[in-house]
Design brief:
This protein has eleven helices and no strands. By secondary structure, the chain is mainly alpha-helical.
Length: 204
C-alpha cells in the first residue's frame, strides 16, 4: 500500500495567487474602477484588470496564463490605488506572470523577454543603463532589427546614446548580487525537481 500523501498544491488559481502574494482575489466585487484608470486597458484585448481578476475568481487558469494581457501591465499601480477594497490588482497580475513563468519559462512574448534580458544584462555588466547597447541586445533578442532605425543617427549626434558604456563605481557588488540570485534560482529549481519525501509507494 502507498503511504498517505497530503498535496499542498493549490486547488484553484485564486488559491495559488493568495499563497504567492498574500492577497485574496475573491475580495474583488467587480466595480471596474481599476480598469477605468488603467492606461493600458484598451490594449489588453478585452481583458483589462477587472476582467483578469474575474477570470481568476472563475478559475480560468489556462486562459489567464496564456493571455498576452498579463504582460501588458505597466505596474504603474494606478489600479491598486483606485481599488476601494484593497485587492491590489497590480500585484495579482504580477503574480499571474510568476505563475505563467513557473509553468513555462518562455511564457512571456518574445519582445518582452528580449527587453527584460537586455535591460538586466546592462545592469549586470555596468551597474547602470547603457542605452545603445541595451537597444542592440533588444533588437537581436526580439528579431525586430529595423523599426525605429532612422531615429538612431539623430540620437547619436545629440548625445542621447553613448558609444562607450560607463561602469558605476560599485559594479562588482552589483555583479555579486546577480550571481547570488542565479545560485538561489538554481537551488530552488533543484529542490522543485527532487522527488517529494515519502512519495514513493511502500510495498508490503
Amino acid at each position: 500500500m502507498s503511504g498517505h500523501h497530503t498535496s499542498t498544491q493549490p486547488a484553484t488559481i485564486a488559491e495559488a495567487l493568495q499563497q504567492l502574494t498574500g492577497l485574496n482575489p475573491l475580495r474583488c466585487y467587480q466595480c471596474g474602477k481599476c480598469s477605468a484608470g488603467c492606461p493600458m486597458a484598451e490594449e489588453m484585448g478585452g481583458l483589462p484588470p477587472h476582467a483578469l481578476i474575474r477570470l481568476v475568481q472563475t478559475d480560468h487558469r489556462d486562459k489567464l496564463l496564456k493571455s498576452e494581457a498579463i504582460w501588458l501591465c505597466l505596474t504603474c499601480e494606478t489600479c491598486s490605488a483606485r481599488c476601494p477594497n484593497d485587492v491590489q490588482p497590480a500585484r495579482l497580475i504580477d503574480g499571474l506572470r510568476e505563475l505563467a513563468l513557473s509553468a513555462d519559462p518562455l511564457a512571456a512574448p518574445r519582445p518582452i523577454r528580449a527587453f527584460h534580458e537586455a535591460f538586466l544584462e546592462q545592469v549586470r555588466s555596468h551597474g547602470r543603463m547603457a542605452e545603445l547597447w541595451m537597444i542592440f541586445g533588444y533588437k537581436l533578442g526580439s528579431g525586430d532589427l529595423f523599426s525605429d532605425a532612422l531615429a538612431a543617427p539623430g540620437m547619436l549626434t545629440r548625445g542621447k546614446l553613448k558609444l562607450i558604456p560607463q561602469n558605476i563605481a560599485g559594479v562588482e557588488e552589483v555583479r555579486r548580487i546577480f550571481e547570488g540570485v542565479k545560485e538561489l534560482e538554481q537551488a530552488q529549481a533543484s529542490k522543485q525537481a527532487a522527488p517529494p519525501e515519502g512519495g514513493a509507494a511502500d510495498h508490503g
